[in-house]
Amino acid sequence: MEMVFEKIRLDHAGDGVAYITLNDPANMNPVNAQAMKDLVVCLDRCEEDSSIRAVVIRGAGGHFSAGGDVKGMKARLDQGVNTTRSGIRAGGEFIMRLKTISKPTIAWIEGAAAGVGMSIALACDFSIAAEDTKMVFAFVNIGFVPDGGITYMLSRAVGTVRATELLMSGRKFTAAEAKSWGMITEAVPREELEATVQRYIRKYSTGPSVAYANIKALINRTCYSELNFCMQNEVPAQYACSTSDDHREAVTAFVEKRKPAFTGR
């Protein structure tokens, strides 16, 4: 089975494992609203197919995901079009679907993982990264608040003090650091990444699937009952940011490859 969308690909060779690939390597696999909707379709197909017992998410071309499509944001700003509310809702729907799918999910992370790419990584059951992967919660760098449930998932993973510092600074860090903070499952040397991911794939595509599904459900009910509420709150917050002068300046500066000059408005 293969399904190909504009920037997403779903492959299932019949071995119990489905691979969802973020497929825009020329731009480091950014994820826009349409991609989020296509990802939900992929997850629904994986849920419905009883022959699929584990789901792997990775990026094409050596990078996981650069996060949001900043070039697309610039084009919409220039056109006077604001799709923030619908885009954030689409992202929230995808993250909830990823978090609640009954089958084990594995994020295969390398190169760069930024913004909503980090949301995807944290929403998977297992996140395996090359230790030199460059990670960043880049939202604040374009005058945005974190979305995709990051404030909720990250705070639970690393605590509010470190989450506040990482989200408000917008600084880069490595996957090795992320592992040391309890943010991801494993960080391994780049040459060991594929073998490590394959070890997880073999285990969770051949194990007790009913038990896995119920363990996931119990963890979600115990630890993530307010994740959807968090993402609903992101909609008005992100919309307010999307109308700010600082957001317009940050997006313009990104496209022009210069440092933004924020005015606080």
Q: Can you offer a commentary on this structure?
A:
With 265 residues, the protein is an alpha/beta fold. It has a single domain, classed as 2-enoyl-CoA Hydratase, Chain A, domain 1, CATH 3.90.226. It contains eleven helices and ten strands. Strands 1-2-3-4-5-7-10 form a seven-stranded mixed β-sheet, sandwiched between helices. A three-stranded mixed β-sheet has the order 6-8-9. A hairpin with a 4-residue loop joins strand 2 and strand 3. Helix 3 packs parallel to helix 4. The termini are far apart. The model has no long low-confidence stretch (mean pLDDT 96).
Element pattern in H and E: EEEHEHHEEHEEHHEHEHHHH
CATH topology: 2-enoyl-CoA Hydratase, Chain A, domain 1
Could you tell me the radius of gyration in angstroms?
18 Å
End-to-end distance: 50 Å
- Proportion of beta-strand residues: 15-25%
Catalogue the unreliable spans.
Answer: none
The rough form would be described as globular
**Tally of individual helices:** 11
Report the sheet with the most strands, covering strand number, pairing sense and barrel closure: 7 strands, mixed
How many structural domains are formed by the residues?
1
Short summary:
By secondary structure, this protein is of the alpha/beta class. 50% of the residues lie in helices and 16% in strands. It contains eleven helices and ten strands.
Produce the secondary structure layout.
Blueprint: E1 2-4, E2 8-12, E3 17-22, H1 33-48, E4 54-59, H2 70-79, H3 84-100, E5 105-109, E6 112-114, H4 116-123, E7 126-130, E8 134-136, H5 150-158, H6 160-169, E9 172-174, H7 175-180, E10 186-188, H8 193-206, H9 209-223, H10 227-242, H11 245-256
Parallel strand pairs: 3-4, 4-5, 5-7, 6-8, 7-10
Antiparallel strand pairs: 1-2, 2-3, 8-9
